[in-house]
Description:
With 254 residues, the chain is of the alpha/beta class. It has 11 helices and 8 strands. The protein is globular, with a radius of gyration of 18 Å. SN-glycerol-1-phosphate binds at residues 13, 189, 191-192, 215-218, 236-239.
Amino acid sequence: MQLEWGDVTHVTKVDPAKPLPADLEVLSGTDLVLVGGSDDVTEENTLEAIDALQATVPDTPVFQEPSSGAHVSSATVERADAVAVPAVFNGDRDHFVGKHVELFTEIGEQPGELLGANLPLVGRLVESKGRDVVAELAANLVGEGYVVQHLESAAADRAGVETAYTPEQVAGAALATETFYGFPIFYIEYSGTYGGPDDVEAAARHLEETRLFYGGGIDSAEAATEILEAGADAIVVGDCFHDDPETFRATIPE
Length: 254
Ligand code: 1GP
């Protein structure tokens, strides 16, 4: 799908391992939903969340954001609008390189199986169809340059993050994301705590094409405004979507 990145200012992170609020209509003001989490995520609960979201807010794009290749299947690729794959700059090697090579190895070896396509098994036709399927799948993957800055978070623990970056290093990672890696998203992740505007200001100076996402501890209109005014293209709101729909509603810009 072609998402108009310029229209995305409010993003909701839905953890498929947590119960969804009774009234999902609260999502009607958000521009994009990312489905993913650090603990107890499975392909099954990811699909359940995607289905529930698409049934209630069918016009809102839903991306799967897997923390493991095991959560990605032909069904998730087909039903999500895209699969957003984090590359954690300050994580361990697995989370910047290892998991990606694993995922792409699987895609390259079994494109038909991954997409549920019924590919013929012999001949040149196979080769060309196989390449088409690989290209289609790869086109649905969106790279995200990540820095995880809250060391006490589950995200930091699972990604092997031991050191938070200085604002100067965050700026460097942002610059690399746009000019070297070419990912469409750079994500400053403070999951569970509010990190303030400093990292956002540092990163924003270097980004033109790549969209700057900030997530962590946003639970008021004031925090949302502070981060957007610091230069983020979008705020990502997670915890309070699950915990308190009224607070969540306050984070959606007018
Ligand atoms: C988590 O960045 C998101 O991945 C949002 O953070 O849960 O703290 O809102 P919160």
